[in-house]
Amino acid sequence: MEKGHASHSFPAVYDKNSRILILGSFPSVASRAIGFFYGHKQNRFWKVLSACLNEECPMTIEEKREMCLRHGIALYDSIESCDIEGSSDASISNVEPADLGPYFETGKIKTVIFNGRASERWFHVYQKEREGVSYFLMPSTSAANAATSLDKLIAKWGEVIKP
Q1: pTM over 0.90
Q2: How far apart are CA 143 and CA 80, in angstroms?
Q3: pLDDT at 144
């Protein structure tokens, strides 16, 4: 697969009541194709989040968006555009960081959750931690993180995300 430049092609999930911001690194090929977060069928994000919130796992983009907003959860990524090979975080270069300022300035974000190390790393390269905000690195929900079972993901994420 050849490395190419890609841009974030869909908006954040966010409203003025968002208290938690969950950041990925950059959308996968599957997510870019469907125009929404965690679009790869093997990614366990929606199973983990719905279990932590005691909700049925949402199926449609609208159900996913509504579940997040109902619980004060915003979704975006640390990177706005980059050179990337497929969906490989390890191949990311030539990064343009996401402008996360508006989410902090206009909302009530008090918790940031990084969905995996790449998200955390890129956030810290380009962003400053904000006073009064707690930051948590969670194990990635990607299928590439096969070392962490679904049950372990739910337990770890559930320490921070509660209904």
Answers
A1: yes
A2: 22
A3: 86
